[in-house]
Amino acid sequence: MRIRLTALVISLVLPVCGMAQTAPSAQSLEDIRQNLQAIDSEVAQLRTQLLATGNQLPATAGNPLQRLDALEHNTRLLTGRVEQLQNDIRRMADDAGRRYSDVDFRLTEIEGGDTALLGNPVALGGGVTDGTAGSGGGTGFGGPMTAGQSDTPNVAVAISEQNSYDAADAALEAGRYEEAAAGFRAFLGEYPDSPLANDATFELAQANLATGAFRDAAKGYLKAFNAEPNGPNAPEALYGVGISLQYLGQMPEACLTYDEVERRFPAMEPDLADKLEQGRDGASCQR
């Protein structure tokens, strides 16, 4: 019985210590909640056995039932906290989905499209099924994030695929924006599932912004941002949504987007911070 109690305590402590030293994505909140429930069940079984057998631990170890009471109480507190975090994340994903849907509605309305064809808001991040937002699908407007970690792993691409992307990118760098836009559109049409597809979407938005295709630019920036909300292009992409809306005359929406850039990326690059201030001044945003 003493061995089982010792093993139980170790099984509770070690996962908590591990979580403090590893990345948050190593174990989902749902996994943690299930582990805690399993421990709680084991504690209940041990309590039943102690009461049935009358086994006692050495006096120096304390009353085993009291120790089990404390362990059971702490386990339930942790379980409640995990469930609270799950609910918080779900609310954030739902709110982000509504915001995305609102922007999509406004852009479709500006274009003169049929807003009746737009679907209902969907929680960003591919939905929330296990208490965490899905990776690679966007998390919407949540808490602050830092850029620099792409959601897309470094994957080798075919030579022809890379050459097609590089040609369009070279045209963008040279200021040949129409050529660049055509090149990125062709790339996305030919390689829609490429590891470079999201970069191409972002660069196409850059080219569209430079040519004055602001509606297309806004949609492209928004798509690129939601595909990798904490990727290397995320701060610029979200800023791009704001500046595109500003050029479209949607000043309140542009100001809200600028605020979102600052909230999500407080450690942004100085160049982006300068552009953000210029955008706020141009849109007459209130601080």
Would you mind describing this structure in some detail?
The protein contains ten helices and no strands. The chain folds into two domains: about 1-95; about 160-285, Serine Threonine Protein Phosphatase 5, Tetratricopeptide repeat, CATH 1.25.40. The longest helix has about 50 residues, at about 65-110. The termini are far apart. The chain has helices at about 1-20, 30-55, 65-110, 160-175, 175-190, 195-210, 215-225, 235-245, 250-265, 270-285. It is mainly α. Its main location: periplasm. One of its GO terms (biological process) is FtsZ-dependent cytokinesis. It is found in: Periplasm.
Brief summary of the model shown:
By secondary structure, this protein is mostly helical. The chain has helices spanning 2-21, 29-53, 64-111, 159-173, 177-190, 197-211, 214-227, 234-247, 251-264, 270-283.
Write the layout of secondary structure elements.
Layout: H1 2-21, H2 29-53, H3 64-111, H4 159-173, H5 177-190, H6 197-211, H7 214-227, H8 234-247, H9 251-264, H10 270-283
Summarize model confidence as the mean pLDDT: 74
Fraction of residues in helix: 55-70%
Through-space gap between termini: 64 Å
Number of strands: 0
Number of domains: 2
Count of alpha/pi helices: 10
String of helices and strands: HHHHHHHHHH
Q: Which descriptor suits the 3D outline?
A: elongated
The secondary structure category is mainly alpha
Q: What is the strand content?
A: under 5%
What's the architecture of the largest domain in CATH terms? Alpha Horseshoe
Q: Please identify the top-level CATH class of the largest domain.
A: Mainly Alpha
CATH superfamily of the largest domain: Tetratricopeptide repeat domain
Output the CATH topology of the largest domain: Serine Threonine Protein Phosphatase 5, Tetratricopeptide repeat
Spans of 5+ residues with little confidence (pLDDT < 50)? 1-27, 57-61, 125-153
Q: Give the biggest sheet.
A: none
Structural Rg? 26 Å
Protein name: Cell division coordinator CpoB
Family: Belongs to the CpoB family.
InterPro entries: CpoB, CpoB_C, TPR-like_helical_dom_sf, TPR_rpt
Signal peptide: 1-22
